[in-house]
């Protein structure tokens, strides 16, 4: 990958600024702290796209909270959903039995990925499962899903930045931007 200096060559427009992200993550962190006070929830970070959001969100939560990671993807490296959901844990597996799990996701699109992850967690004996997503594209929903904590609704456009990639690139952008369509139609 070439050094990434000229953002304007790949980003059509900024949708959510760094300051807006910071304010919203702080607000959601405070909300989760209030609603889970007296419990010790487990954040389940869905890799790879939500690593940045999960890291900032965890620092905005003031009650005891744990974190685990799973890999789940329905997209591969293209911008079009491919169908099946691939769920993988680290070597020791994932212990969620009797835990209050908060799934931390980058973006809910059709809802396919999180529907599969929710079922996986229920099968593994989680006590409760809620969803916290950084972004949502409500227009695109195919699998109905209750998202308890949502940062931003966005229109049906392909976005990158703040952890979200296109073909493994652009995750390091500190804002969310709409990718120029010519980048993914090339
Ligand atoms: P779903 O299973 O809800 O259809 O898709 C969710 C996943 O699709 C997200 O975790 C993300 O990886 C990917 N995705 C959906 N829309 C976008 C987008 O606009 N940009 C990027 N980078 N990924 C997206």
How would you describe this structure to a colleague?
- This protein is α/β, with parallel strands linked by helices.
- It has one domain: Rossmann fold (3-Layer(aba) Sandwich).
- It contains four helices and nine strands, in the order E-H-E-H-E-E-E-H-E-E-E-E-H.
- The strands form two sheets. The chain has a six-stranded mixed sheet, sandwiched between helices. It has a three-stranded antiparallel sheet with strand order 1-9-8.
- Strand 2 (42-47), helix 2 and strand 3 (66-73) form a beta-alpha-beta unit.
- Helix 1 crosses helix 2 (51-60).
- The longest helix is centred in the N-terminal third of the chain and has 18 residues, at 18-35.
- Residues 76-82 have low confidence and may be disordered.
- Bound molecules: guanosine-5'-monophosphate.
- Guanosine-5'-monophosphate (5GP) binds at residues 49, 74-75, 81, 105-113, 158-160, 164-166.
């Amino acid at each position: 990958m070439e050094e990434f200096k000229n953002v304007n060559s790949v980003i059509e427009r900024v949708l959510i600024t760094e300051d807006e992200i910071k304010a919203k993550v702080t607000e959601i962190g405070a909300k989760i702290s209030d609603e889970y006070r007296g419990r010790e929830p487990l954040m389940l970070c869905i890799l790879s796209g939500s690593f940045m959001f999960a890291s900032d969100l965890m620092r905005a939560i003031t009650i005891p909270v744990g974190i685990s990671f799973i890999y789940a993807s329905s997209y591969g490296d293209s911008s079009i959903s491919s169908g099946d959901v691939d769920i993988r844990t680290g070597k020791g597996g994932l212990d969620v039995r009797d835990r209050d799990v908060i799934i931390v996701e980058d973006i809910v699109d059709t809802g396919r990925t999180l529907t599969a992850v929710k079922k996986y967690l229920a099968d593994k004996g989680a006590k409760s499962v809620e969803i916290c997503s950084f972004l949502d594209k409500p227009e695109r929903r195919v699998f109905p899903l209750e998202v308890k904590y949502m940062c931003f609704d966005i229109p049906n456009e392909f976005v990158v930045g703040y952890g979200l990639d296109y073909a493994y690139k652009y995750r390091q952008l500190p804002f969310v931007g709409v990718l120029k369509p010519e980048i993914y139609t090339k």
